[in-house]
Amino acid sequence: MPVLHLQYGMYVWPCAVVLAQYLWFHRGSLPGKAVLEIGAGVSLPGIMAAKCGAEVTLSDSSELPHCLEICRQSCQMNDLPQVHVVGVTWGHVSQDLLALPPQDIILASDVFFEPEDFEDVITTVYLLMQKNPKVQLWSTYQVRSADWSLEALLYKWDMKCVHIPLESFGADKEDIAESALPGRHTVEMLVISFAKDSL
């Protein structure tokens, strides 16, 4: 398992295609927005956001320099020199994490993969939400087990989530944007925010 874990960021996963479709559907609201993709890897959602006019920062684990290099290569191949790449390790408070400016949207494609990482992901998102309590986490995840749920963890961190029906943004097909990647996988789209979003 550790070998695959090191290579997670080297592939475009079904969830990335669904999240990119959500961004495309909402492209009119993206210009000028500060957007951070966490666990970016190949960075399809972040690249889509940047192509739609958002001010994007891509991040992946500072402990996996090859994943950060993949982020940089994705920017290079898509002619996006203005996109910043930064190492952020979930659950670790670092200078790079603290130096990030307030974000409007945080993107997370399939970061809820290993249950032992969930709390670290949420901790990192919570720290980012402290800078802008109105920030939203736009997240897709692939349902792999009925044995776990994010809701209890979100409640613990005073967050809430809204499940977005895939058909509401044209992502309920086996093929999206000429990609067969979503296939027959069960992918969920969530918008996560502070439970007290009237802050």
TrEMBL record:
Its EC number is 2.1.1.319. GO terms for biological process: chromatin organization; methylation; regulation of gene expression. GO terms for cellular component: cytoplasm; nucleus. It catalyses: L-arginyl-[protein] + 2 S-adenosyl-L-methionine = N(omega),N(omega)-dimethyl-L-arginyl-[protein] + 2 S-adenosyl-L-homocysteine + 2 H(+). One of its GO terms (molecular function) is protein-arginine omega-N asymmetric methyltransferase activity. It comes from the Eukaryota. It is found in: Cytoplasm; Nucleus. Pfam families: Methyltransf_16. Keywords: Chromatin regulator, Cytoplasm, Developmental protein, Methyltransferase, Nucleus, S-adenosyl-L-methionine, Transferase. Belongs to the methyltransferase superfamily. METTL23 family. PANTHER family: HEPATOCELLULAR CARCINOMA-ASSOCIATED ANTIGEN, HISTONE-ARGININE METHYLTRANSFERASE METTL23. Interacts with HSPA5, HSP90B1, TUBULIN, UGGT1 and UGGT2. Interacts with TET3. Interacts with STPG4. Histone methyltransferase that dimethylates histone H3 at 'Arg-17', forming asymmetric dimethylarginine (H3R17me2a), leading to activate transcription via chromatin remodeling. Maternal factor involved in epigenetic chromatin reprogramming of the paternal genome in the zygote: mediates H3R17me2a, promoting histone H3.3 incorporation in the male pronucleus, leading to TET3 recruitment and subsequent DNA demethylation. This is Histone-arginine methyltransferase METTL23.
